[in-house]
C-alpha cells in the first residue's frame, strides 16, 4: 500500500492564525496493540471536516482518543492551543468539545424539552439553562414545535436534530459527530448536513465528523482526511479528494459494498 | 507480515472445529505446540486415560478414594450437561439443580409408591427431566437471558417448596430412605460411564450442525433466526438434553446416598458449585467444565475441610475471585493469552 | 366476609413490604442491567442491623431506620464501586455469578454471627394492635406499611424531582446519551446501587419487628422481588407496587384458604404466576417497552 504524503491543506482560517483543533502524531490503541500509528490533522475555526476510511482503519479510534475513551500513547491534541490530550469526557465538555455519538442518543421516555435541558446537565443555574434552551429552540424550530412530546416518538431525522441541538447547550467550540449518516436515508443525510452548514453560518460552529459513507461525507464537508491502517493517507478539500483517481480507486471502491 | 497474521475471527466461518482446536491447543501450546492439534493423538490420549481409569479400581483403591473418583465423575457429568444449555446456547440456567432433585425424587417416589426396584426406575428419571424441561423451557426460553436465569432459580425453589409441602406424597422434610447399596466400585463405574458419555457427547455436539446452531444462538439469536435456524427448537433441545442428563445423575446419586430429602436434593450449593466449576474451567468450551470440576473437587478435598457457614463464605469468595480474575475460565483465558500475544507480535511486525 | 377483608388487609401490608424490596431490585436492574442475586441477603442485613441496635443498644427500629438506610446506601455504594462495577457491562452471567457469590458470603457471615435461630426485633409496641373499620393490624406491621409508603413516596420524588434522579433516569434510558451530556455513569451506578440497598435495608428493618427472620430467608426474598419486578415491568414504579400487592395478596390468601400447605407455597405461587404472565405476554413483561428508573 503506497502511502502518499499529505497534500497541501486548504484552510478556511487566515494564514498565521492557529487552527481550532490540532492533532499531532497521535498513537493509540487497545491493550498494547496500536491502532493509530501517528495521525496528524487540523480543523480550522468554522470548518466542517470529515474523516473517512474503511472499516477497521482506525477512524473511530481517532474519536475515542480525542474523547478520552482510550489512552493516548504518544502525540497531543490541542484545542485553540490548550493541551487537552488527557482530558476525560466531562472535562472536554466544559472545555468546549461536544460529541454526537453514532448510536441513538436520545432519552426516549423524556420530553424533547427535558432532553435538551439535559444537554446542560453540568450546569446547575436554572436561569442559564432556560435561556440556552430557548436559544437552541430558536435554531431548531421543528424541535420547538414538539417540545412537550416524548422523544421516543420522534422520527429518525428529528432525533438526530435533537441530538445535535442538545450538544449545543454548552456552547461548544467544536462538535464531534460520529457517523452522522448512520440509520438515516440519503435524503435525511443531506438534510442533516445542510443543517450543519446553517448552524456553522448562524452560530459560527465547527464540526469534525467521521463517516463510513465516504461519498456523502466528503461531498458535504469542506475538507476531508482519508485514514487507512491507522495513518492519514490523503487529505484535502472534499471535492478534491472525491475527484482524486487514487482515492477513488483504493478507497471509494470499498464504499460500493455497503 | 500481514499475510501470515491470523485474523481474530472470520465471520461466516464454521466455528465448531476451529474453536475446538483453539481451546484444546491453547493450554499445551508452550509444550508440544501443534502436535496435540492432531485429532488422532488426542483420541489416543483420551483412550489411554480412559483405560487407566477403567483398570484403576482393580488395584485395590479404598472406599473413600473410590467415592472421591465417582464424585469427580459425577460433577464432570453435571457440569458438562449444564454447559450445553448455559455455555453453548448462552441461556444460563441458574436453577439447574431442579433437574437433579427431579431425578432423585423420580427414583424415590417410584420406589416407595410403586415398589419398583431401583434400577428399573433409572430410565424414568431422564424422561421426567425431559418432560419438565419441555414444559418449563417452552415459556421461559423465550425470555431474555437474565430473565431466564432467574426464572429457573424460581423453578428450582418452587419445586423444593412443593417437595417439602406435599409431605404425604414426598415424605416432606423427613425424606425417603432407600435400601442401601454400598458398592463403591459399582458407582465408580456407573459415574465414569456417565461422565465419558456426556463428555464425548459434548465433543460430538460441538462439531455437529446442532452444536453450531447453539453457538449461533449464543452469538446472535436474531441473526441466527434470520439465517433460518429454528432457535426455539435449538434452545429447547439443549435444555431438554441437559435436563434429562442431570435428572439421570440425580437419580443415581440418590441411590448411592440411599436417602433423599428436599434440602439435599434441591440444595443451593449445587447451583454454586455448577456455576463455580464451569466458570473456573471455561463456560462454553468443550473440555472446560470437566477440567473445572476435576480441579475444583480435588482442591476442595485436599485443601478444605469446610462445612456450613465457612463453606458458604469460602465458596462465595471463590466465586467472586474467579469471576473477577478468570472470567473466561482456565481454558478460555489461556486461549485469549495466546491470541493477544499473536496480535502483539503482529502489531509489532506491522509497525516496523 | 369479615375474614376475607382481614386477609386482604394483611395482603396489602405484606405487599407494601414487597414493594419496597422489589423497587430496590428494579432500580438497580433498570439502571445497571444487573440482577442482584444477593438482594434478599441485603434485606436480612438490614433486619439484623435493626435487631442488633434494639438488642444491644436499646434503640427502637424506627429511630434507627434513617441511620440503617444511610448505612445501606454506603454499603451499596462501596459494593458497587469495588465489585459490581467490574461486571456491569459484561455478559449477564458475570453479574449473576458475582452477586450470587456475594449472597453466599453474606449468608455465611450472618449464620456465623447470628446462627440460624429465627429472630424478631422486639419493641415496646410489639404486642400492640391498631384497629381500623373493625379490622386489626399488629402495630409493627402497621409501621411496616406506613414506612414502606413514606419511603416509596420519597424515592419517587428523588427519582423524578431532583438532579440526581434525573441523571439516574437518563442513565437508565440511554447510557451513550448520558455519557455525552457529561453524566458520570460509574457514579450514577454507585448511587443507584446505594439507593437500592438503602431501600432493602429499610425493608429489612421494618420486617424485623413485624415477623421472624433467619439467614436462609435471603433467596426467598430475592425470588419474590424478582417475580414482582417481572410482573410489574422493570423500572416502572407503579407497576412494581401493583405487582407487589398482587403477590402479597396471593400469599395471604393461600395461607388462609389452603389448609396446611398454603403457607409454604410463596415461591411456587409467585413463580407459577410469573410463568403464566410470560405465557400470556410472550415477549416478557418489559419486552419492547422503554425502561425508566422511576414513575
Automatic annotation (TrEMBL), chain A:
Gene3D superfamilies: P-loop containing nucleotide triphosphate hydrolases
PROSITE patterns: ABC_TRANSPORTER_1, ABC_TRANSPORTER_2
One BP annotation, GO: L-amino acid transport
Highest taxon, organism lineage: Bacteria
Keywords, ordered alphabetically: Amino-acid transport, ATP-binding, Nucleotide-binding, Transport
The keyword Transport is annotated on this UniProt entry: yes
GO MF annotation list: ATP binding; ATP hydrolysis activity; branched-chain amino acid transmembrane transporter activity
InterPro entries, sorted: AAA+_ATPase (IPR003593), ABC_transporter-like_ATP-bd (IPR003439), ABC_transporter-like_CS (IPR017871), BCAA_Transport_ATP-bd_LivF (IPR052156), P-loop_NTPase (IPR027417)
Family assignment from sequence similarity: Belongs to the ABC transporter superfamily.
Protein name: ABC transporter ATP-binding protein
Protein species of origin: Prauserella cavernicola
From TrEMBL, chain B:
CC annotations in GO: plasma membrane
InterPro entries attached to this UniProt entry: ABC_transp_permease (IPR001851), LivM-like (IPR043428)
Keyword terms of this UniProt record: Cell membrane, Membrane, Transmembrane, Transmembrane helix
Subcellular location: Cell membrane
Domain of life per record: Bacteria
Gene Ontology MF terms: branched-chain amino acid transmembrane transporter activity
CDD domains, per database record: TM_PBP1_LivM_like
Residue spans crossing the bilayer: 41-59, 65-85, 92-112, 118-138, 145-166, 186-205, 236-255, 275-299, 311-330
Membrane topology: Multi-pass membrane protein
Protein name per UniProt: Branched-chain amino acid ABC transporter permease
Species assigned in the record: Prauserella cavernicola
From TrEMBL, chain C:
CDD domains: TM_PBP1_LivH_like
A single cellular component GO annotation: plasma membrane
Primary subcellular site in the record, as a coarse category: membrane
Topology term for the membrane: Multi-pass membrane protein
Annotated keywords: Amino-acid transport, Cell membrane, Membrane, Transmembrane, Transmembrane helix, Transport
Regions that span the bilayer: 12-35, 63-84, 96-115, 142-159, 180-201, 213-234, 241-258, 264-280
One GO process term, biological-process aspect: amino acid transport
One GO MF term attached to the UniProt entry: transmembrane transporter activity
One Pfam family, short name: BPD_transp_2
Cellular location(s): Cell membrane
Record InterPro entries: ABC_transp_permease, BCAA_transport_permease
PANTHER family: AMINO ACID ABC TRANSPORTER PERMEASE PROTEIN, BRANCHED-CHAIN AMINO ACID TRANSPORT SYSTEM PERMEASE PROTEIN LIVH
Family: Belongs to the binding-protein-dependent transport system permease family. LivHM subfamily.
The name this protein goes by in its record: Branched-chain amino acid ABC transporter permease
Organism of origin: Prauserella cavernicola
